[in-house]
Amino acid sequence: MRGAGIVAGVALRESVRRRVFVVVALLTVAFLGLYGLGVWRVSREVTEFGDFQSGVDGDVVAGATLLGLSMFATLFLGAILAVFLTLNAVRGDAERGLLQPLIVRPLGRGTFLLGRFAATAGVCVTYTVFVFLASVVITNLFIDWWPDRLFVPAFQMAVAVAVLAALALGGSVLLSSTANGIAIFMLFGAGLTAGLLGQIGEALSSETLQDVSQVTSWILPFEAHYQNALSQITADTFGFSRFAIDLGPFGGAQEFGWFLWPFTALYLGAIAFGALAAFRRRDL
Amino acid sequence: MAGVPDALAVEDLRKRYGANEALKGVDLTVGEGELVGLLGPNGAGKSTLVKIACGLVQQTSGSAAVAGAPAGSLPANRSLGYLAELFRFPDWLAADELLQLHQKLVESRGGAAERRELLELVGLGEVPDRRVGQMSKGMQQRLGIAQAMLGEPKLLMLDEPTSALDPAGRRTVRELLETLRSRGVAVLLNSHLLSEVELVCDRVVMIARGEVVAAGAPEELSRAGGVEVTTGRGVRHFAQATREELPRIVRELVAEGEDVYEIRVLRSSLEDVYLELVGGR
Ligand SMILES: Nc1ncnc2c1ncn2[C@@H]1O[C@H](COP(=O)(O)OP(=O)(O)OP(=O)(O)O)[C@@H](O)[C@H]1O
Ligand SMILES: [Mg+2]
């Protein structure tokens, strides 16, 4: 535990010294600013929209769709952070000779991985939850709407990026930096595509598309958590508003039920086990 | 000495990298407080052996133990200090911060005093705040040596620690090694600088193509050059003869009616022995 704390501390200190957090903060401010601008523009048009379609609450549809967009972007930013913080944690650093001086210390390879995971997941989770909550508040500043659930979707977004961080860290044991970065972004893309397929499948009532999407989301559970988070923000919305949201790009998200939680725990455990086994066998 | 485990004990150690057999059954011990030089040509397996002892590389078979604990275990790693031949420290850390980090990792209680002393010892006392990224290669190597000495390890494994050092730095390291020996620290030194090894090491182990080809004290290894006698009929070479046999050889030559003009006891240098044993490759 002590060793893991030291390793995590070094990883965080490196990010601070390399100004990673400054860059991320600036970009996030820019993102949230743009998002606010978008919400404001939409809010001025929603009023008319609501007048035309009776039975559809324009604020709900606009709010849910915009927040869905922001969640998509937030997950993407969280994924970038997760990938870049762990990209070269093992093999990349070993190839450069940075890892060996640490590993010969009485530390243990498992402790090293744990420390790196704690640092990355800590940063990514904090970041994702912050951006999600900030988006919720910004949405409400201009549109009179709050999501139906707040903490569960925030938590699920956090779990989604934690899964991505675990995948990237596990990947760093097997792959060199560039290959790992590409691999994780491809998995990320595959997950998102699967989610979109499912939404299209829902709109077209296509069982096959929805099945493909389901299976892929179980294989890449960050997507399942993201889908769940999306569906949670309109959990209590029904009727014509629901119908209108489902037709939008961020509606029609699938739900994955309680089994997703133990499944995710097992999934993370499997990554940890595989990564550690591979790391233990790796000559440095 | 009974009961005190060797600082390093390696038995029938083998390592395969795919089809390439880097170590083919190496036996080696470094006793407590002993300074052993590991010599051998490029690709002989020296670094592989040291990496196995540090737990960085997994052996194919055989055993390696550091202070009685299996190589790679936490107690083994607690007893050793290591400087790799190709290493890098994070370029954003200052010299003192790097040592502080490693002090935490080895649970050293030396504090600022230990860091200051080690930086002084390796000649970086003036620049504790300089960042690794702004250090020359030799300065980084000096820092690496200081880092390896943190926490008073029982066994220090240095893989070509002076490859980037200036002549003064090399002498500093030699003196450092002698100080360490006097404190009872065992050292395994990989080096291509035969003169350096000859000067400081208690024992030398030569490996070539993954096998030990010679082992012994430097003066033992560099003996056996034979005797050369210049007589009236030319130069005669007695390859196996030693200094002790000289009077007998001279008596015999004189008895045979030879005129003896000059006698030389040949002492091949460690370099000659090395080149002979490893085939000059
Ligand atoms: N990671 C590796 N993968 C495959 N083969 C390796 C690896 N590391 C070393 N080898 C091989 O093992 C053999 C021994 O290499 P090693 O680095 O131990 O030599 P060395 O004696 O330290 O040489 P040098 O004096 O050049 O440092 C060489 O044939 C080398 O090609
Ligand atoms: Mg070497």
TrEMBL record, chain A:
Pfam families: ABC2_membrane_2 (PF12679). The keyword Transmembrane applies. The chain crosses the membrane at residues 20-40, 60-90, 111-138, 150-175, 182-201, 258-279. The keyword Glycosyltransferase does not apply. Keywords: Membrane, Transmembrane, Transmembrane helix. This is ABC transporter permease subunit. It comes from Solirubrobacter deserti.
